[in-house]
Design brief:
The protein is mainly alpha-helical. It is 49% helix and 12% strand. It has one domain: Rossmann fold (3-Layer(aba) Sandwich). The strands form three sheets. It has a two-stranded parallel sheet with strand order 1-2.
Length: 206
C-alpha cells in the first residue's frame, strides 16, 4: 500500500519476481478493460479521469474473480488494493479459508515528493514500463526502451486531477492503514530512498 507515486508498481514487480508469485494492479486491470472496451472499462474510465475511485462493488468483484483463478493458487502480491475499508474487509473474508493475508506493507512518501514524481511520470502503453521525465527518462525521448512504443502520461497524473486524487487517497485509504495496523501485520517503510534502498527495506519487511 501507499499513495499514488510511492513506487508500489515498481516494487510489486520486483517482489513478485523474487517470491515467484503472480502480481495484480487494479489500475492495470481497469486499463485492460478500457482497452477492450468492456462495460467495466467504460465505468472505470469515468471515475479515473476525475481522480475518483471506482465504486467498491465493481472493484471487489473484479479483484476477487482474479484471486480465485487457478493461476493465483500459489500466492500473489496486490498493488493498489484494498483502497477502502469495504475492500479490505471483503479481501479478508475472501481469503480467510486460505490462511488470510500474510503481510501488508505501507510505503510512506511526503506529498511534495509525490507531486514531483507524478507530474513527470510517463508509461509505456504496451508493456507498462514506467519512466520519469527527469529522474528516469527513456534512452530515446518519448519512446519505450523495451518495445519502442510512444510513452504517454496517464489521465489521472495530469496536474489538474492530481491534487484531487491525493485528497481522495488520504480520505479513503488512511482508515485502511489503521485497519491493518490494528491487525498487527502492517509494516511501514520509507519510500523516499533510491529504488534499491526501498527494495531492500521491503524485502526485510516482507
Amino acid at each position: 500500500m501507499g499513495p499514488p507515486g510511492s513506487g508500489k508498481g515498481t516494487q510489486v514487480k520486483r517482489l513478485s519476481e523474487r517470491l515467484g508469485v503472480t502480481r495484480m494492479s487494479t489500475g492495470d486491470l481497469f486499463r485492460s478493460h478500457q482497452a477492450r472496451g468492456t462495460e467495466l472499462g467504460l465505468v472505470a474510465r469515468s471515475y479515473m479521469e476525475k481522480g475518483e475511485y471506482v465504486p467498491d462493488e465493481v472493484t471487489i468483484g473484479m479483484v476477487m474473480e482474479w484471486i480465485d483463478a487457478p493461476e493465483q493458487s500459489a500466492g500473489f502480491v496486490l498493488d493498489g488494493f484494498p483502497r477502502t475499508l469495504a475492500q479490505a474487509e471483503a479481501l479478508d473474508k475472501g481469503v480467510a479459508e486460505a490462511g488470510g493475508i500474510d503481510r501488508v506493507i505501507y510505503i510512506r512518501v511526503a506529498r511534495d515528493e509525490l507531486i514531483r514524481r507524478l507530474t513527470g511520470r510517463l508509461v509505456c502503453p504496451k508493456c507498462q514500463t514506467p519512466y520519469h521525465a527527469v529522474s528516469a527518462p527513456p534512452t530515446v525521448e518519448g519512446e519505450c526502451d523495451h518495445c519502442g512504443e510512444e510513452l504517454y502520461q496517464r489521465e489521472d497524473d495530469r496536474p489538474e486531477v492530481l491534487g484531487h486524487r491525493l485528497k481522495v487517497y488520504e480520505r479513503e485509504t488512511a482508515p485502511v492503514i489503521e485497519y491493518y495496523r490494528r491487525s498487527a501485520n502492517l509494516k511501514e517503510i520509507d519510500g523516499e530512498g533510491t529504488t534499491e534502498e526501498v527494495e531492500r527495506a521491503l524485502n526485510v519487511a516482507a
